[in-house]
Structures are given as C-alpha cells and as structure tokens.
Design a protein that fits this description.
globular, single chain, binds nicotinamide-adenine-dinucleotide, disordered N terminus
Length: 473
C-alpha cells in the first residue's frame, strides 16, 4: 500500500457528491428538526447495533485485510464495544434528554429555570486506523444520541474497513443525516477547512494540533482524543505473575497499536529482575500462541525498527520482523537511555521498555516529569500505594492491577488530559460532548410590577438588599 497516496474524496451514498452538497443535505436535515426527535435518535442507535451485529463477518474480514487482526479480538475490541456503547445510550437516553430544573434567586423571581440539552448541529468525527470501527462508531453513538447530523471520516490507512463502513452506514442509518467521507490527508484537510458545530478527532498529538489550529479559524469546539506514553508502575508488593501476564497481554493486543497500551514499565528494583523475566516469558508465550496482528504499513514498521536502533538498553527477546507480512515480534528493552527516541516518542508497537526505580515515589516523580499520559497503570497489593499513585499523578484514565480494560466501562468518560487530549466521550459524557446545555428562564407576564423598572423606588431597593442579605453600609 502506498502510505502517502492522494485519494479523491468519496462520500457514502453517492460517489459523485461533493463536500459542499453533503454539508447542505445534512444541514437541511438537521434544520428540519428530524434528528432532534428522541424516536429518531433511538432508531439510529438501533440501526448502529444492527450494522455491527448483522455484518460481523464482513467487518471482521475488512479489519483482517487492513490489520491482520484476529477475528475474536476484532469482535471484542471493535464490534462488541460499539454495540455495548449503543445499548447503554439506548437504555439511558430518556433520562439524558430530560431538562433539569434550577432554583430561581430572588432577583429573578417569580420564574421557572431549567437547563435542557440540545443537539449542536452538524458534527465531524475523524478516526485513526488502529481500532478502525470502534474509534469511528463509538463517538457516533454520542453524536446520534444527542441528535446531531454527522460526517464520519474513517482512516485511509485502513482502506478495507473504510470502504465497508462507507457502504454499510447509509444502509443502516438515516443517509440524509449521517455521511461517510473517505479519503486521505488531503480530504481531512478539506473537511477541516469547513465550519462545524463540533469536531471529535482521534489520532496523534501532532495531528491534533493541526486539527485544533484549523478549528480555531471558525471557533469550532474540539474534542481531541490523542496519544502519548502511558506508564505502568509495578510495586514490589504486586502479584508479579498476574502483573506480567496482564501487561504482556495489553502490550501485545493489536501488536501494541493501542492508544492506551502500556508504553513502558517502571518497576521497583527489589522485584525488577523477577518481573522482567516473567514479562519476557509471557510475551514469548503470546507471541508463539497465535498469528500476530500486522503493523499498519511499511512506514510504521520502519519507524518501530528505527526505535530499536539507538536505545542504549539491553534487548531481551530476539528481533523478528517479517516485512512482507508487516509483523514484528515483541521485544523487551531493559534500561534504555531516557533520551533515546524509544523513551521520548509514543511507541505504538510491540516494544516494551522496562526501567527499574528505587521506590514507587521515584516512579511518581518520573511520571510527573513527563507530559501527562492518556492512561496510567499501577500494579500493587496495597490500597495505600494505589491511592498514592492515583492521587499524585495525572492521566486521562487509570487501571489498577490490569491495563486497557478501564476503557470498556461504558458509563465512564474516556479522554486524555494535557497533550494526551481534551474532552471525553463514552456513555453520558459522549452525549454531553455533542450537546449544548441551554439555560432557560421563563417568567410570567401576570403582575408585572412597575417597581422592577427604573427609577427603582427606595423601598424596593431596601427590600431587595434585605432579602439578598447584602450587609448594610
Ligand atoms: P494520525 O494522527 O496520523 O491520523 C488520524 C487521522 O488524521 C487520519 O484520519 C488522517 O487522515 C488524519 N491526518 C493525518 N495527518 C493529517 C494532517 N497533516 N492534516 C490533517 N489530517 C491528517 O493518527 P494515526 O496514525 O491514524 O493513529 C495513531 C495515533 O492515534 C497514536 O498517537 C495513538 O495514540 C492515537 N490514538 C488515540 C486514541 C484515543 O482514543 N485517545 C485512540 C487511538 C489512537
């Protein structure tokens, strides 16, 4: 596959339809009020469930073509996640859309105050290639639950999945409210030049900056789901056998191409030798057990190989790269240089640096000296250590004694902090991200007091100061 190939924009529904006409069509649908109705929203969510459940085989085959992804993992990480996210939204939508009433202060009495969520309008969702179904359709759940019209931009680096979704989305969802626009960086750039009511972007921190800069021109609000180096702290009192198995699983999942994968391990030196040996054994086991997921393309494989060139550490598993299949066996790197590219860049592949630290306190300092990560993992048998790490480090999300699974709890917001992202989605937070909370005050017209207008009578001024408990001068 040519990594840098220019691609013509292609929209689902009609291949000849240009971006302006897609926007016009979707905007007209939104303005008609159709998407705001709760029954419409529920039909779309059900449509999304049908899309993933009825087309499992085709979608999994497309992900296999793009990523060589094992069928069960494709189902687990992409199809099931989207289905459960949509089911959760369906279950809670009636309560999410309800207005919330607010107490009215004396100055605004008499009156009734409430907030009501309302859809934003026409929103754009841009997805990466690593979980090409989940990261396109899980944000769509929030956008549809909130009643928006949506343009979806799948990643050009997962072309088979992009094509199958472009075909299936208009079959299962309202084609005048949801459109898939396929294409490469040039198409994304074209999309970003337009004014949207919201953009949710998932991808690298570098491109996140491009997105935010483009959005700033129109003051378009953004949710940025970015990457970074997610640390994994292993305390001396952790269950080392279970910790090693779980870290190895999380690192090897999708060949390390997971935004919340453990990027590197910080282990207390008392157990460093023991944990490292177990990590090597576990990674060798998962490596030999099944066909590996491919690295997405030649340039990413080359990038991973180049990370191994100059790290200054000790490699504990043999390098094994198959350029044709684009696969890479896992490598553990003991004590790499901290200024090596391996320890400076997000790895996003099956390489696991392991560094020993004297104490958990040192691990906390190590994390706090670096950009705030998307996820942080701590393996410990002590609630005190757990509390210490959770309270004194900042990360988008965390998991204690496992990794990655925190993302699978549909009611918890998912997002980064600082350079790993801003805003969140999943569950109610996805609904909130794509809704505007409108504040409304309704006042009766009966009994309109003249005293409420200038010149304010002295008595009224006195009474108001008294009831608002303003200290007299
Ligand atoms: P990427 O940033 O290269 O690409 C993402 C999207 O941006 C693609 O659709 C692409 O068309 C577009 N794009 C790329 N370059 C662009 C440019 N110059 N101008 C405009 N648009 C451009 O990311 P990727 O390689 O697809 O994914 C890997 C990155 O995504 C990693 O950093 C990973 O951590 C991150 N990620 C984050 C999450 C999360 O939920 N926070 C999930 C998955 C991946």
């Amino acid at each position: 596959m040519n990594d840098t190939a220019r691609t013509e924009p292609r929209a689902s529904g009609s291949e000849s339809e240009d971006l302006a006409s897609i926007r016009e069509r979707l905007t007209a649908t939104f303005r008609s009020g159709r998407t705001a109705g709760v029954p419409w929203r529920k039909r779309q969510l059900q449509g999304l469930i049908d899309l993933v459940q009825q087309n499992e085989e085709r979608i999994v085959a497309a992900m296999d073509a793009d990523l060589g992804k094992p069928a069960f993992e494709a189902w687990l990480t992409d199809l099931l996640t989207v289905r459960d996210e949509a089911l959760h939204a369906l279950k809670h939508l009636d309560s999410w859309v309800k207005p919330t009433s607010h107490p009215v202060p004396t100055v605004a009495q008499p009156g009734k105050a409430w907030t009501q969520p309302q859809p934003l309008g026409l929103v754009l969702v841009i997805a990466p290639w690593n979980y090409p179904v989940q990261l396109l359709l899980a944000p769509l759940v929030g956008a549809l639950a909130a009643g928006n019209a949506v343009v979806l931009k799948p990643s050009e680096l997962a072309p088979a999945t992009s094509a199958v979704l472009a075909e299936l989305v208009p079959q299962h969802l309202d084609p005048d409210a949801v459109a898939v626009v396929e294409g490469g960086v040039d198409v994304t750039t074209e999309l970003l030049a337009e004014p949207w009511d919201h953009i949710l972007f998932t991808g690298s921190t570098r491109v996140g900056q491009v997105v935010m800069e483009a959005a700033a021109k129109h003051l378009t609000p953004v949710t940025l789901e970015l990457g970074g180096k997610s640390p994994t702290i292993v305390a001396a009192d952790a269950d080392l056998a279970v910790s090693a198995r779980r870290i190895a699983w999380a690192k090897w999942l999708n060949a390390g191409q997971t935004c919340v994968a453990p990027d590197y391990v910080l282990v207390e030196e008392a157990v460093a030798e023991d944990l490292t040996r177990r990590l090597v054994e576990e990674l060798a086991t998962v490596r030999d057990r099944a066909e590996p997921t491919s690295i997405i393309n030649g340039s990413h494989l080359g990038r991973l190989e180049s990370l191994l060139e100059d790290h200054g550490g000790e490699e504990l598993l043999p390098r094994k790269v198959d350029a044709e299949a684009r696969t890479m066996a896992p490598v553990v790197v003991r004590e790499p240089d901290l200024d090596s590219r391996l320890m400076q860049e997000e790895i996003f592949g099956p390489i696991l640096p392991v560094l020993s630290v004297a104490t958990v306190e040192d691990a906390i300092d190590f994390v706090n000296d670096r950009p705030r990560p998307l996820a942080l993992y701590v393996f410990t048998g002590s609630r005190d250590t757990e509390r210490e790490v959770l309270e004194r480090t900042t990360a988008g999300s965390a998991c204690v004694n496992h990794a990655v699974y925190q993302v699978a709890v549909p009611s918890m917001p998912f997002g980064g902090v600082g350079p790993s992202g801003m805003g969140s989605y999943h569950g109610k937070s996805g609904f909130d991200t794509f809704s505007h909370t409108k504040s409304v005050l309704r006042r009766p017209t009966r009994g309109d007091l003249k005293a409420a207008y200038p010149p304010y009578p002295g008595l009224v001024q006195k009474v108001l100061r008294f009831v608002t408990r303003w200290p007299s001068s």
